[in-house]
Design goal:
It is built from 17 helices and nine strands. The protein has two domains: 62 residues; 325 residues, TIM Barrel (Alpha-Beta Barrel). The protein is α/β, with parallel strands linked by helices. It binds 2-acetamido-2-deoxy-beta-D-glucopyranose (4 copies) and zinc ion.
Length: 412
């Protein structure tokens, strides 16, 4: 049944209320069909009736905010989200020992990410974390990381809905859910630049310098592990070599999870723009995983990107939170450094609790709707959804091309 016709005929509160709960796109599509249908079945009077109905619908839509819902979906169809951080690969290890044959990735229980929900969320690109726990540092971290890279490769090649990409061009032109691989934590390279280079060859295009532990060469924002206590040396000589080697390879440097001092040192060292793949605004929620305003300013000068984390702990500081508090982080960062420095790094399946209305990867459109309500322009949101990330990735590749004559660093 076409709701527009019902709304046009009845215009009672209950009917219009019910209409709001149908998917907006389907209503518009059905109603467009209905506009033509009367010519053959009902003649001119039917057509006029449809036209009058449409007028009432538009009036009701504009005044109710209904159009914003449709606008968000159209925007996300034209600019599918590229999200900076997702930990479903970790869940595949924890829940299924990486045995993909035992599950259907279209619909996985006990996780927040699967193909059905990625599609509903208009996700067109996802950076998947190859993460291994800090206690594996200097033990089997490299092998475990290889196994996580393997499961992402398998996931993204065994399902036709996915496509592994390793260049900005392939990411930009992908019509599928493009998969990017990121390594989450410098402990995964075991202080070996050769291991870093081989990860690049396996398709890894981003690495966070630390997870929740210090490495011998960089400092974490967390103190839950006691590895390598720092002595006023947040990014060592070797740490700077890692940054330079990542610039040379064309791998994005991710400062989420690193200490602010390490991040400041990276910003002074890197020739290419850097990212926070999943961090939010410290001014809105005072958590050390978030980014303070002075560091945001330095990030802007670097032309880098902060991809806002949606985890309740970083968004609402202890409370569960809702879409409104999540949107406050976007508003704040936009006020400080502009919308062109912002992306989204949901952190789904890497954290336990998410704000009401943002429970899994199907919910991104609700966030975009909220930002539209807050008068963010379509151009700003196209940037937040994907264009800002593509710009940074392209710039990282450009720096790599400029460094083509530079030899690999041999430091150990
Ligand atoms: C996913 O599977 C569960 C049962 O395992 C089912 O109840 C649910 O409807 C499915 N969801 C989708 C989107 O297919
Ligand atoms: C740490 O090093 C910086 C620069 O080398 C210096 O300015 C600062 O005083 C040092 N801080 C401590 C606590 O040693
Ligand atoms: C979101 O949470 C805040 C703080 O708890 C509250 O004031 C606000 O009304 C909530 N907004 C919505 C839309 O629920
Ligand atoms: C958005 O813009 C409209 C029209 O300019 C204005 O009335 C409204 O208050 C603005 N809303 C916000 C949240 O800024
Ligand atoms: Zn993380």
């Amino acid at each position: 049944m076409c709701c527009v016709l019902k709304a046009g005929r009845l215009l009672d509160a209950e009917t219009t209320h019910n209409c709001l709960h149908l998917p907006a796109r389907r209503i518009l599509r059905n109603c467009t069909k209905m506009l033509f249908w009367p010519f053959s079945k009902m003649g001119l009077s039917g057509c006029m009736f449809s036209g009058i109905s449409l007028f009432f619908f538009m009036h009701f839509a504009v005044t109710s905010g209904f159009l914003v819902e449709e606008k968000a979906l159209v925007l996300m169809t034209n600019y599918p989200l590229i999200d900076g951080h997702n930990d479903v690969a970790l869940q595949l290890r924890i829940l299924h020992d990486n045995r993909l044959s035992k599950i259907d990735l279209h619909n996985i229980s006990k996780v927040a990410t699967d193909i059905n929900r990625l599609r509903a969320g208009h996700v067109g690109g996802q950076m998947y974390a190859a993460y291994v726990i800090c206690t594996a540092q200097e033990k089997d971290a490299v092998r475990l990381t290889l196994e996580q890279i393997d499961v992402i490769h398998r996931m993204c090649s065994e399902y036709p809905e996915f496509e592994l990409v390793t260049t900005s061009h392939a990411l930009r032109s992908s019509k599928k859910i493009a998969c990017l691989i990121s390594v989450e934590g410098g402990h995964s390279i075991d202080s070996s630049l050769a291991a870093l280079r081989m990860f690049y060859r396996l398709g890894v295009r981003s690495m966070a310098l630390t997870h929740t532990c210090n490495t011998p060469w960089a400092e974490s924002s967390s103190e839950i592990y006691t590895f390598y206590p720092r002595d006023n040396n947040s990014l060592t000589h070797f740490g700077k070599a890692v940054v330079k080697e990542m610039n040379r390879l064309g791998m994005m440097i991710d400062m989420s999870h690193s200490s602010w001092d390490t991040a400041r040192a990276v910003l002074q060292t890197s020739q290419a723009p850097v990212i926070f793949s999943h961090s939010s605004a410290f001014t809105v929620c005072n958590h050390r995983r978030n980014v303070p305003d002075d560091l945001l300013q330095a990030l802007k000068e670097n032309k880098g990107l902060i991809m806002v984390n949606l985890y309740s702990g970083f968004v609402a500081c202890g409370a569960k939170g809702n879409i409104s508090i999540a949107a406050d982080h976007f508003d704040h960062i936009k006020n400080v450094i502009g919308a062109e420095s912002i992306g989204i790094g949901g952190d789904y399946d890497g954290a336990a609790e998410f704000p009401e209305g943002l429970e899994d990867v199907s919910k991104y459109p609700a966030l975009i709707q909220e930002l539209l309500h807050r008068n963010w322009s379509e151009a700003e949101l196209a940037g937040v959804l994907r264009l800002n990330f593509l710009r940074v990735f392209e710039q990282v590749e450009k720096v790599r091309d400029e460094l083509k004559g530079t030899l690999p660093v041999e430091l150990s």
